[in-house]
């Protein structure tokens, strides 16, 4: 009863279907018909065989290279290439990481790779009470019965808000592919403050904030977040016919208001969106698209030899909406424009343009000089460089063929997925199949593509372990890319860490890119699958360490305001926590009561967090200094239930407790 | 309406109530009436003030010391005291960590401190699908409606199974304080395989496995896990009278069958259990007890000057049960014996004995030579050393006063919480209030207590950052304690890491203890609050990297076995995953159907894990190589739902997907 396309099955059968990594390499080679570039390769260009032991430690594959940055720029103690942060020293950079199928975001210290924080968003977090407190439920969204609408998620791409071309430390956004949610994190307290479920979208993949407004020069900061969709689905009526009529499934590209966290507009598109990039001038947003064939089976998705980087003219779209040139999907009020190929053939009126790139591309990244989008080939061993001024020229009617916006197509190796930059004109592309990173020069790639055969854009290659995906150098996606550290997110770790059972960690590797050649300096195991990340200097963030009690309307300001009030069977218990006690430390309710506990931590000392655990009632949360949280539940079990402080706070922390007495 | 005891409020008021760390130090000093020992102190004996900046890096407070272990024992490259593990190198030790209020367990590499794995147990884990799959729900426990009974937890103490006095790599256990559950992890696959909710218990705190049978010499391995209770509650009838009658609340100590994960017996006790320790000969289990006063308010809990290490005679208790000398609590069949003070005054028949220790002790740890339990004083600046042979002598009628089992009471500093050992006769005790670790010699402490005033047992002190709790040296709780590395779990990190908002990480510090003086070598930030941990050499574990398909009764062995079957409105969908495809990749159901998806990963390659995400149906889980999992849900929404691989598996991973078509 095979429903899998015959062609794919044949391919799989021919490859033995088990020899994954070898077969992946083989499939890449067969599909693409090209061998990896071999120039300037430090290590072996071949992928590590699936079952073979790891190659020896990197010092052999990555000889020490001269570190050109001044020591103070490096900001760490130790020899060149050392990432050791000695006790009492601080990391020099923040890493902002997506959490993958854990549904959270993570803050790392770089270069040490140490995880400093996990920020829950899509999924409940028992430690802080995310998903238990009334405040977090309001952010996450609930069903009519008050339970959470979703408790699982799959965060992929994370990016921060911009001002004047660098991160302003205000927000980070990360997408939940699983349930099509956009999560916003406020970076002052490093907590999730808004979650938006995108309508009509399934398989929400790439995101990117804009960097300034396309029209108003005074808006030099992020006001939009662009969101791509992967999966084709029926976009309007759902009935027995439409769900089975795959020829009429569709996709949308969504623009979200960054501040309000509401959808501004959506655009009908062809194809499946992979990643999203935005130009530094605010005028263009692009998404790499595979499956422009609009296929629903594996062979159909790969039938065309050319896919696209679809580039949107933001100002034109928003002017069209102002002019009333939009429709709706379903019952909501969101304006929808048409950015499909057929509706956008005239450059003078086109809202979007399809720049041709080889089939099934993956990432798209904007160079820090603002000039180019670089599309990674995935099934093509190339990166395609698109000059953004030429795209604007096309929209202005000054370029006859959009294909001419492609100014380079550089052969980098097998399975190029993502590209980052060092601010010195070089690009670094992950090669999934080769398990390498390729460093190449953008200007030289353009010269070579223009016909200068004497130029070799490839500067260096280095083995990484293994199968790299995302890559990002220090503030590479800002105008201040400095080319000091580079993180590489490897999808497989295999034998790089002590064995921990069948589920392996992934391997986030750190490379020193200050020299001509890359140097591998650190392996960090990570719980899968933190797709994407950005790294930037610590001076760009200034988080607050203690809350402002006035930000919490329910705050219980002192022991005098604490106590129990009853309204029918609704009981409100106001509690203050101060090390090492709660006030009150005992209260009585009756079975059947609806109990709301409001808890304020009135301690002011930094790091003096208290917890509240209520046994057998499945309730637990933390309150940080000056913070207030609340929970509501039904007292459905009689007995004595000791609430206790779950977060070590004092020498008498164990004694910090109180009783909820539930009378039958 | 203050319900807090007046005495405590007065104390708090006098202390200003805000200046936590200072007040904690002051409270300790006031209560105990003793100053910290100042001998041999490397750094300042005073706790770091709450608001002051951190002291300079440890090199100043911990001068370099001669490393006496041979380099090959150290197993890492770098200078003395370096923890840097270069790319391609492996850590030398496993760290098995409790996860705290995240409800999981964690595997770390030591000395790098890198987190290799998180093992969900008490709480759902969206990444692996723990709490979503039918298999994990069966382990976690469900309510009659099929939803999970508990979704939050608070894991505290983690210990591994023993054979011949060392870890055998079979199991680890960790307790959930919040919902009184004992979680067992099988260490071959590093997954939770059993969870037991302890009856009658609230505030389940310390645990420890036994190390051999007290009677049968052939049973030289763990067969019991001992579990302490903190919170006094009504143990039998729950009615309006008993819940308010705090004078008649009680506690039990529980013995669990390590293999069956069933309660073997329970013992009525006085007081609140903190930690648990077991003797290497299997004969004794001990628990440090505070609140032997059985108070329910803060001042009452601290009224007595003396509390206890309660030590159980395991063989006697089990013989008593064989002899039918037990009762029951409530309706279950668990035999319950009486280990309260009044019932155990005659040494010849006593089932347990109360060894007096200063008020409100905290941890209790067994020395690796098998001779002693060391109780840490918490509110007393002392550690109490109990000679286990003398306790056995008391049970045998050969010691007239159990107080004589105390062979030392060494002054270590303010706020001693936990103690570990180096196998060379030295103990290391965390001082919560002093923010230090004190190294002291056990034999010298005994000599001094016996009257030799010329002896000074204190060898070294070192500042740690800040407020340390648990402490463990490499395989310190086995007969092969080797005194190489020592971990210290600090409850506060304050300024040791880049700021990440109000919620600070904790700080697990690593110290080199091979020399006479301790050397602080690494700060690892950790998400709170990983209470306890053990560290042991990597050779003691041998996890399996690929599952055996035969272990899964529902396994779908090949694409030929895949497909859809229907029985009324119950639909079973058998799917195989193999990179980069599912088979089948489309199936239809109708709204209202109960759908069970059974998914087998038929790839055999190590590290080739697939995922399964089902949008808008809130379903996500992983399948490792050769693993099978299942989920059951109601198809309650019509539409097209693309299931997709959530775990990057192949260059065409993004294309690995299929459709569940739900017809209206």
Task: Describe, in plain words, how this protein is organized in 3D.
The structure is a homodimer of 664-residue chains. The first copy, chain A, is mainly beta and 664 residues long. Chain A has a domain at 549-663: Immunoglobulin-like (Sandwich). In chain A, the strands form ten sheets. A five-stranded mixed beta sheet of chain A has the order 8-9-10-11-15, covered by helices on one side. In chain A, strands 30, 31, 32, 34 and 37 form a five-stranded mixed beta sheet that branches. In chain A, strands 3-2-1-29 form a four-stranded antiparallel beta sheet, with no helix packed on it. Chains A, B: This is Nitrous-oxide reductase. Chains A, B: Its main location: periplasm.
Feature tags:
globular; homodimer; Nitrous-oxide reductase (chains A, B); 5-stranded mixed β-sheet; 37% strand
- The computed structural class of chain A is mainly beta
Q: What assembly state would you assign to the polypeptide chains in this entry?
A: homodimer
Please tell me how large the radius of gyration of chain A is. Answer: 27 Å
CATH topology of the domain at 549-663 in chain A, by name, is Immunoglobulin-like
- What is the annotated CATH architecture of the domain at 549-663 in chain A? Sandwich
Pathway (chains A, B): Nitrogen metabolism; nitrate reduction (denitrification); dinitrogen from nitrate: step 4/4
Subcellular location (chains A, B): Periplasm
Keywords (chains A, B): Calcium, Copper, Metal-binding, Oxidoreductase, Periplasm, Signal
Catalytic activity (chains A, B): N2 + 2 Fe(III)-[cytochrome c] + H2O = nitrous oxide + 2 Fe(II)-[cytochrome c] + 2 H(+)
């Amino acid at each position: 009863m095979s429903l899998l396309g015959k062609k794919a099955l044949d391919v799989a059968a021919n490859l033995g279907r088990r020899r994954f990594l070898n077969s992946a390499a083989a499939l890449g080679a067969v599909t693409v018909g090209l061998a990896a570039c071999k120039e300037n390769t430090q290590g072996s260009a071949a992928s590590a065989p699936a079952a073979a032991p790891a190659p020896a430690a990197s010092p052999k594959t990555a000889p020490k290279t001269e570190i050109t940055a001044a020591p103070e720029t490096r900001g760490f103690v130790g020899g060149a290439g050392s990432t050791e942060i000695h006790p009492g020293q601080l990391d020099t950079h923040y890493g902002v990481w997506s959490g993958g199928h854990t549904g959270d975001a993570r803050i790392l210290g770089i270069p040490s790779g140490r995880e400093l924080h996990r920020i829950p968003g899509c999924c409940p977090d028992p430690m802080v009470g995310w998903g238990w407190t009334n405040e977090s439920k309001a952010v996450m969204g609930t069903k009519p019965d008050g339970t959470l609408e979703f408790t699982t998620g799959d965060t992929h791409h994370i990016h921060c808000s911009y001002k004047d071309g660098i991160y302003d430390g205000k927000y980070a956004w990360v997408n939940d592919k699983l349930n099509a949610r956009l999560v916003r994190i406020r970076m002052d307290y490093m907590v999730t403050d808004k979650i938006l479920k995108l309508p009509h979208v399934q398989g929400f993949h790439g995101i990117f904030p804009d960097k300034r407004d396309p029209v108003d020069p005074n808006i030099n900061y992020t006001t939009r977040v662009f969101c791509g969709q992967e999966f084709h689905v029926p976009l309007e009526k759902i009935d027995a016919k439409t769900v089975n009529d795959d020829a009429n499934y569709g996709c949308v590209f969504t623009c979200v208001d960054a501040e309000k966290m509401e959808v501004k507009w959506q655009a009908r598109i062809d194809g499946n969106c992979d990643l999203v990039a935005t130009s530094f001038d605010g005028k263009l947003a692009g998404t790499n698209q595979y499956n422009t064939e609009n296929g629903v089976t594996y062979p159909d998705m790969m039938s065309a030899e050319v896919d696209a980087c679809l580039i949107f003219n933001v100002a034109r779209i928003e002017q069209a909406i102002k002019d009333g040139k939009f429709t709706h999907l379903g019952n909501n009020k969101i304006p929808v424009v048409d950015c499909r190929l057929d509706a956008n053939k005239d450059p003078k009126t086109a809202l979007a343009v399809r720049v041709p790139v080889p089939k099934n591309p993956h990432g798209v990244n904007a160079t820090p000089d603002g000039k180019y989008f670089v599309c990674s080939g995935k099934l093509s061993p190339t990166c395609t460089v698109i000059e953004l001024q030429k795209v604007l020229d096309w929209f202005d009617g000054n370029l006859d063929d959009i294909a001419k916006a492609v100014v380079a197509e550089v052969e980098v190796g097998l399975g190029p997925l993502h590209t980052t930059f060092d601010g010195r004109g070089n690009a670094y592309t992950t090669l999934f199949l080769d398990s390498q990173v390729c460093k190449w020069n953008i200007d030289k790639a353009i010269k070579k593509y223009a016909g200068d055969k004497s130029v070799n854009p490839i500067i260096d290659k280095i083995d990484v372990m293994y199968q790299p995906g995302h890559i990002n150098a220090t503030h590479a996606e800002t105008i201040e890319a400095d080319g000091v550290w580079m993180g590489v997110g490897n999808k497989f770790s295999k034998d790089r860490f002590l064995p921990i059972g069948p589920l392996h960690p992934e391997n986030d590797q750190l490379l020193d890119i200050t020299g001509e050649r890359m140097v591998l300096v650190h392996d960090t195991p990570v719980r899968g699958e933190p797709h994407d990340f950005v790294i930037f200097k610590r001076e760009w963030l200034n988080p607050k360490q203690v809350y402002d009690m006035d930000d919490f309307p329910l705050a219980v300001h002192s022991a005098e305001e604490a106590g129990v009030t009853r309204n029918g069977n609704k009981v409100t218990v106001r509690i203050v926590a101060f090390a090492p006690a709660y006030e009150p430390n005992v209260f009585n309710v009756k079975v059947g009561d609806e109990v709301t506990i409001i808890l304020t931590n009135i301690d002011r000392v930094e790091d003096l967090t208290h917890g509240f655990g209520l046994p057998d009632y499945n309730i637990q949360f933390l309150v940080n200094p000056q913070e207030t949280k609340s929970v509501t539940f039904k007292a459905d079990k009689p007995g004595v239930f000791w609430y206790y402080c779950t977060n070590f706070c004092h020498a008498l922390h164990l004694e910090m407790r109180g009783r909820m007495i539930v009378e039958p």
